[in-house]
Amino acid sequence: MTDFTMDKGADGVAVITWDCAGKSMNVLSMEAGEHLEGLIDDALADEAVKGIVITSGKDSFAAGMDLNAIAAMKDAAGENPAQGLFDGVMGLHRVLRKIELAGMDPKTQKGGKPIAAALPGTALGIGLELPLACHRIFVTPDPKAKIGLPEIMVGIFPGGGGTTRLVRKMGAMAASPFLLEGKLSDPIKAQKAGLVDEVVADPVAAAKEWVLNAKDADIVKPWDAKGYKMPGGAPYHPAGFMTFVGASAMVHGKTQGVYPAAKALLSAVYEGALVPFDTALKIEARWFTNVLMNPSSGAMIRSLFINKGALEKGANRPDVADETVRRVGVLGAGMMGAGISLVAAQAGIEVVLLDQSVENAEKGKAYTASYMDKGIQKKKATEEKKERVLSLITPTADVDDLKGCDLIVEAVFEDPKVKAEMTQKVEAVIGEEAIFATNTSTLPITDLAKASKRPEQFIGIHFFSPVEKMNLVEIIKGKETGERAVAKALDFVRQIRKTPIVVNDARFFYANRCIIPYINEGIRMVAEGVNPVLIENAAKQVGMPLGPLQLVDETSIDLGAKIARATRAAMGDAYPDSAVDEVIFWMEDEGRLGRKSNAGFYAYDEKGKRQGLWEGLSAKYPVADEQPDLIEVQHRLLFVQALEAVRALEENVLLDIREGDVGAILGWGFAPWSGGPLSWLDIIGAPYAAERCDALTDKHGARFTCPDLLRELAEKNQSFYGRFGPAEADAA
């Protein structure tokens, strides 16, 4: 079955229907694009056809380009993949331009056939770029439908003409949220913004009526008409000049220069605005090719699209029967328990929220009410939805109310004795088949499972705070955890629309074992006399969302001190971070506990707004006269994280390198431009990485010792994804 079919109606309208067999949403392949071009040629040449409507056989229009098409374009050119990509993109431009010009006489701009797009739902990426080439866009009023160009979120930009057309349609300023931020809109908002033309109950019928009544002037795009001027002004216009100057500063301020797609997009827009439309499309194709050839974009696509999607679909789920959660018991109604209850109820799962008193449990439920109220204010929720979600949460202080729960998520105080007591109390009343999950960020799951009479049904689930905002969930297998428990945890995470990674039990699991060294390295540099401003800016300029000092302020300094004491007690003489403890314990003694106390490595005003680095820090730890260069600071901050990821893979804590990269980006924001720590090591190359490890070890200590696995890859000139990655992920 082909992706596109055409039905020439007796009314003179040819309806081209896009319907990819075996896929929930349409995606465009190179073969499908060629087939679409053939159908367009046929319809334009047929005198009986008065107009064309392009629609979908699904309840959505399209999700974008088939990413395998990118690999196919590269492969088609052999030793010159850039040429293959450029030719492939220009081929797509040719098809869309053929739709846009619709067979009209190039001199008189008459005689063309109107072509409308009828969107039954979501239209993303090429799914919007194709309609933008049509003469009018009709879309269903479905509030769940999403319209937009989200490519920038996965390391590329709209390269199917969407960048050039949207800027010429709306102006650079109005188009920037959709291009530079990947903003998505529902149909009503999309119409108000100018992305689509009409929102109607029956888009196909409305589109047919329009094409049968359209005049020659209705199908000439503004940029093809004489006297066209770009909305908001072209770059050489005073107003347009200021727009582009501001946009350049804004992009650099947000990306710190490490995201190639944003810079390439801005270049394509600026250069394209100086030339005729067809030349602008060629410029867009060149910059798009440039981005696709950048290893950063390939790594981002692989991690944030291919690998993330595979994990969410259960790539590593055990082969056991469906374990969909119907009734979950949440133990503890504090911030974590309240957040878990919120996301579970939003997913339609019945929740029993248990705390020491009904009053405390009610406070936990009130968190959901407050969250829904904010959604109502922003018109993202309704009173009916709020009531429906709240009706699913039952606050209680009675353990017996947990009967009938098929999953328990314990989120009580981070103390082994407290957790053990709750495990035994709850297991005495829940069913034999129920799975017990403990939410912990540091405590070993195997040890906690000793309190359970069914350790094979005991598992760790590490939610990141705040639960409703953080996409990652870390599932931890104890030594006796069974496959059904893993499946239950994965199915629950799927239901609440989070991204899971599954790891084996070890100190700090995966996420914390990587992020703690990052924080510690920043603090260690403070003690060495490295300027805190250099530390923080070096981190941000290499793509970390927060510098290590700001991050410890956000997570709280006393928590860091607590973890340090517990780790020192567990490791004894092998404990490596005494130099860090000196700073942390001093800050704790000074009462500077971070943002929550309005005093930490940063100073804060009375409202808790960060004011800048605390001046008292340099009084205790004076800034040295000689400072390290930027690259050395950045390498120290990145390598301490990446090497822990490698060690986690070596020690079988990480079971899949895809989880290592996706978990790092979603869990603590490891330089998303790199695709994650293992992808970053692949980008810089194992030989160079091993060489830098040796240099950093000689200068700064054993924490930078090159892991045996990395050394082996360096000696064999191999990559992590070349050796451990699934074929489809490596191809990206």
What can be said about this structure in brief?
The chain is of the alpha/beta class and 732 residues long. It is built from 31 helices and 21 strands.
Structure description:
The chain is built from 31 helices and 21 strands. It has 732 residues and is α/β, with parallel strands linked by helices. The strands form five sheets. Strands 14-13-12-15-16-17-18-19 form an eight-stranded mixed beta sheet, sandwiched between helices. The longest helix has 21 residues, at 81-101. The model is unreliable at 728-732 (pLDDT under 50).
Average pLDDT over all residues: 92
Radius of gyration: 28 Å
Distance, first to last CA? 26 Å
Helix content: 40-55%
Number of helices: 31
The 3D shape can be described as globular
Low-confidence stretches: 728-732
What percent of residues are in strands?
Answer: 5-15%
Strand order of the largest sheet: 14-13-12-15-16-17-18-19
Keywords:
alpha/beta, 6-stranded mixed sheet, 8-stranded mixed sheet, 21 strands
Topology:
Layout: E1 4-8, E2 13-18, E3 27-28, H1 30-45, E4 51-56, E5 64-65, H2 68-76, H3 81-101, E6 115-119, E7 123-124, H4 126-133, E8 136-139, E9 147-148, H5 162-170, H6 172-180, E10 184-185, H7 187-193, E11 198-199, H8 203-213, H9 238-255, H10 260-272, H11 277-292, H12 295-312, E12 327-331, H13 335-346, E13 350-354, H14 358-377, H15 383-391, E14 393-396, E15 407-410, H16 416-427, E16 435-438, H17 445-448, E17 458-463, E18 472-477, H18 483-495, E19 499-504, H19 511-528, H20 532-541, H21 548-555, H22 557-571, H23 578-589, E20 602-604, E21 610-613, H24 616-620, H25 630-650, H26 657-668, H27 677-684, H28 686-700, H29 708-716, H30 720-724, H31 727-731
Parallel strand pairs: 2-4, 3-5, 4-6, 6-8, 7-9, 8-11, 12-13, 12-15, 13-14, 15-16, 16-17, 18-19
Antiparallel strand pairs: 1-2, 9-10, 17-18, 20-21
Helix pairs in contact: 1-3, 2-3, 3-11, 5-6, 6-9, 9-10, 10-11, 12-26, 13-14, 14-15, 19-21, 19-23, 19-25, 20-25, 22-23, 25-27, 28-29
